[in-house]
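Q: Convert this sequence to structure tokens.
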Amino acid sequence: MAETMDKVYPLDKIRNIGIIAHIDAGKTTTTERILYYTGKSHRIGDIDDGNTQMDWMAQEKERGITIQSAATTCFWRDHRINIIDTPGHVDFTAEVERSLRVLDGGVIVLDGSQGVEPQSETVFRQAQKYDVPLLFFVNKLDKVGGDFIMSLGSISEKLTKKGLAIQLPIGLESGFIGSVDLVTMKAYRFEGADGGDVVEFDIPEDMLEDAKKYRSIMVEKVAESDDALIEKYLGGEDLTIEEIKAGLRKMTISTQIYPVFCGSALSNKGIQKVLDGIIDYLPSPRDVPAIKATKVETGEEIHISSEENGPFTALAFKIQTDPYVGRLTYFRVYSGKATAGSYIYNATSDKKERIGRILLMHANHREEIKEITAGEIAAGVGLESSTGDTLCSEDQKVLLDKISFSEPVIGIVIEPKTKADRDKMSQVIKKFLEEDPTLQIKTNIETGQTLLYGMGELHLDIIVDRMKREFGLDINTGRPQVAYRETIRKTVEQEGKYIRQSGGRGQYGHVFIKVEPLERGEGFKFVDKIVGGAIPREYIPAVEKGIKEAAESGVIAGYPLVDFQVTLFDGSFHEVDSSEMAFKMAAIEAMRDAQRSADTFLLEPIMKVEVITPEEFMGDVIGNLSSKRGKIESTEQKGNARIIISKVPLAEMFGYATELRGMTQGRASFVMEPSHYEEVPANIADTLSKDNIRH
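A:
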């Protein structure tokens, strides 16, 4: 049971959902309307006015975009809905990733004039990774070019064949007034200044044929959910509304279908029906499959169901610094309960932690509660957990799968202007690294410069802006730099020996390793093949640690080494002089020598770039992308515009926004996201190596 606002909600009356979308699809506007119609807010927030509840950061208000995922709770039809509103910009994809990891369902908002856009594809793939059931909300149908059928087709073409219309719009563009519910075969319009009066009426005559056609498609699909229903359907009997709803729910939860709704959040049309859809079709914590966990002591795999009385199990998915209460740890409870002031066990860090206070969050506002139970999402004060840590009871120590994040692709030099700022900067950076797992900080050993790496120019721009505003840091920044990687072409075997003797106890570590290349994107693997006690078991982790440390700085230009496997197959030790430190140093030496012999080469990040341009500029745009070592993958027509999809090295894309404006009279736009890493051409690699030597 979950308790808030003096009311207890059973698990089957709770929904944990995310609102996700491409930038500018109307996601935050949709969320604001949801809060208004559920009574959570008493006025409708507007992005243009900068008074939205969920986009509360100064940077969000100024730029009109969501940067940080924000959590809130609202109530509809005697159900409790926990909502996480996520960013739409690709630079903040990590916020979507960690939110989807702990949510039970989601609503993908599409711009009805654009259909599926690049970031819609990204978030859909993320949702699929975690098997998250989804609804689609085709928004902005009152906009010029708003087209529900086109948007439905783009879902089928670009995402999945499982999109299923359960509504049809009445009118389009300026004539859009409401929707036909294909389940009840009733029409609805939304009246009053705020669209709060939902008026039922008969389906317009000119829409009856289309409504029957799309209902027939829906009913046929629903019949497949159950043997009794398919028998009834094939026997020519009509399915009842209750049977249709039950079938839709069952198939949505099992991701066999994705119901598609329609409306316009800005003009207050259709949101109430989306809320109904969340309750009717998206799962409660009880409906989702039990989550996989590993017992700490035995390594045994178990499954944990959402039970209020089970052993406490939760996942920390977000860290945030609050100016009033300090460090907040957001966590989702999968089983059991936790009370404020109690101790829990952090299985990831192997230590006990105390939950000082438990807070229900509404964007940047808080409501203190005494207890949190299975199925709930809240923030804890006093915890020292990191993103992805498993929190559990000491009676059942388990580890949940961690949350994986993409590697950062771009960096900038940050330099404090004064000594006082230098001392302060390291503390501030530590806070940001705790909050944001896609940030990385490195120090150039030769120059002493601090390099901050992130997911894109906007991401880094926001971080630097926050450093200045929130913490009063006075810093200079350098030009953006590409986050290159190094990898190997050949398999080599290498010996590493670390022997020191300077009076008293010495140091002795000795290893033989085999280093071999992996496929692109496989990262790092360590294989222990020590037999017969050649190296004592307690020193093996130190060897792995040494290899990882050596791989942080490659031999060509000092970039991290990726996509390789190291097998530890032999070595020796000294009964007295061997230590963890000695084996770590031996591994570092072996790894560095191996890199020099393994035909190391540079990799660069390749971006997927999607340009939307008027047709008359298409030739110029393609020519320009080709000159940047870009590979054109496809072009497609969209109204009077052309969409050009290409893969371009990130190193060539700095300043592209200005270039594109210049060659298209400001009429083209583009989005890009990380795609993969590729080998750097030899002439460019040579330059990078020389630059590194010079610096």
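Residues 603-694 form a domain with the Alpha-Beta Plaits fold (CATH 3.30.70.240).
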